[in-house]
Amino acid sequence: MKKIILLCTALILFSLYSLGQIAPEDKIVGVYLTATKTSQVRVFKATDNKYYGKVAWITLESRNKIDSLNPDPKLRTQKRLGMLILRGLSYNAKEQKWENGTVYDPDNGKTYDCFLWFDPANPSVLKLKGYVLGMRFIGRESEWIKEAKLRD
């Protein structure tokens, strides 16, 4: 009887421990300070099992900026705060990258293909590469820093 109780206790503890583990693909979920340090982006997993990023904090002087360069005239009056800038990223377990998504740059109104990965030397640094026409070797790279919480 003691063996059964011990085995059941071990199974329960193992199950609770396993539930607390973050799946590798969900490591990207969180809040990041962008390279310009003027905004934070909250990355989340949507119901389609893809990853998205929304501007969750922006500096006080930029708080009322609108998306005036958006190619869609209907969206040119939307505020940058709350704007969805990362879309449709899927996790590639083999490459340990989130790819096949897009990033929108409100500073120029353009959308780029993109992929993201964590810096192996510093796991709190998320690297983002935006590119066009499927040419990953040409493009712009940016580093975002994972933060514990949103700024005020």
CATH fold description? Lipocalin
The global form is globular
The string of secondary-structure elements, in order, is HEEEEEEEE
Q: Which parts are unreliable, with pLDDT below 50 for 5 consecutive residues or more?
A: 1-20
Tell me the helix content: 10-25%
Strand order of the largest sheet: 1-2-3-4-5-6-7-8
Determine the number of helices (DSSP H or I, runs of at least 4 residues).
1
- Can you name the CATH architecture? Beta Barrel
Distance between the termini: 56 Å
Portion of residues in beta strands equals 35-45%
Q: Provide the CATH top-level class.
A: Mainly Beta
Radius of gyration: 19 Å
Largest sheet: 8 strands, antiparallel, barrel
How many domains? The number is 1
Mean pLDDT: 87
Number of strands: 8
Structural class: mainly beta
Please sum up the structure shown.
The chain has 152 residues and is mainly β. It has one helix and eight strands. The radius of gyration is 19 Å and the shape is globular.
Molecular structure report:
By secondary structure, this protein is mainly β. The chain has one domain: Beta Barrel (Lipocalin). The protein is built from one helix and eight strands; from the N terminus they run αββββββββ. An eight-stranded antiparallel beta barrel has the order 1-2-3-4-5-6-7-8. The termini are far apart. The N terminus is likely disordered.
Write the SSE topology:
Layout: H1 2-19, E1 30-33, E2 39-45, E3 51-58, E4 84-92, E5 97-105, E6 110-119, E7 122-131, E8 140-147
Antiparallel strand pairs: 1-2, 1-8, 2-3, 3-4, 4-5, 5-6, 6-7, 7-8
